[in-house]
Write a structure and sequence with these properties.
Blueprint (H helix, E strand, L loop, with lengths): L1 H6 L6 H9 L20 E4 L2 E3 L2 H11 L6 E5 L5 H9 L4 E6 L2 H14 L5 E5 L12 E6 L8 H5 L1 E12 L4 E8 L5 E9 L13
Parallel strand pairs: 3-4, 3-6, 4-5, 6-7
Antiparallel strand pairs: 1-2, 7-8, 8-9
Helix pairs in contact: 2-4
Length: 208
């Protein structure tokens, strides 16, 4: 899987490559889908959610430019796979993952413990569009569901010189946007790629 992602140009930096090599993706998908765990496709994990395709995880990790000491917020824990990969890149930092579905939050925690290779990941249950102010500010924030807008609380909780990665658009398709926050509080936004994520539900997202 990793060799294919490198050949496809999705993986470039040694830290991201090493993290994706170390995380056993088959432990983060339902048992009946383990045979498909290393194919480059999103897979259903229940509650209408999916674990992102490996190439999308690679794209997002590369775009965020995560450093070892970073504090990272993930919106949408899913099965815990993406957070586990990020925690190995931010090996001296912390990852906080917020999930609105209590059942999925429990699954993510269980998968992370079972994998045994993840760094410091804390999974919390709540409305991800509100962020997680208890541990703000964050060096990096990324969202794993499609939003109609960039939730203001996420920008507020982002450090100066921080980066926020989020799919923005309609329920049917989005653009993956990289938002950089500058020292004066202003932001610049760059499109990374067209994408399709499940809808982001919450106060600043879509209605359930």
């Amino acid at each position: 899987m990793v060799e294919r992602l490198i050949a496809g140009g999705y993986l470039r930096t040694p830290e991201v490559i090493e993290a994706m090599l170390r995380v056993p993706r088959h432990l983060f998908v339902p048992e009946e889908l383990e045979a498909q765990a290393y194919s480059d496709e999103p897979l259903p994990i229940g509650r209408g959610q999916t674990v992102s395709a490996p190439h999308m995880v690679a794209i997002m990790c590369e775009a965020l430019d995560i450093h070892r000491e970073h504090r990272v917020l993930e919106v949408g824990a899913g099965s815990g796979y993406h957070a586990c990969v990020v925690s190995l890149i931010a090996s001296r930092g912390e990852v906080y993952s917020i999930e609105r579905e209590p059942e999925l939050a429990e699954v993510a925690e269980r998968n992370i413990r079972r994998a045994g290779c993840c760094g410091r990941v804390t999974v919390v249950t709540g409305d991800g569009t509100l962020g997680y102010p208890e541990k703000a500010p964050y060096d990096r924030i990324y969202v794993t569901a499609g939003a109609p807008q960039v939730p203001p609380p996420l920008l507020e909780q982002l450090k100066e010189d921080g980066k926020l990665l989020i799919p923005v658009g309609s329920r049917l398709g989005q653009e993956l946007l990289l938002v950089e926050k500058h020292e004066d509080g202003s932001t610049t936004t760059k499109k990374i790629i067209d994408c399709v994520f499940v809808p982001l539900i919450g106060k600043y997202g879509w209605k359930a």
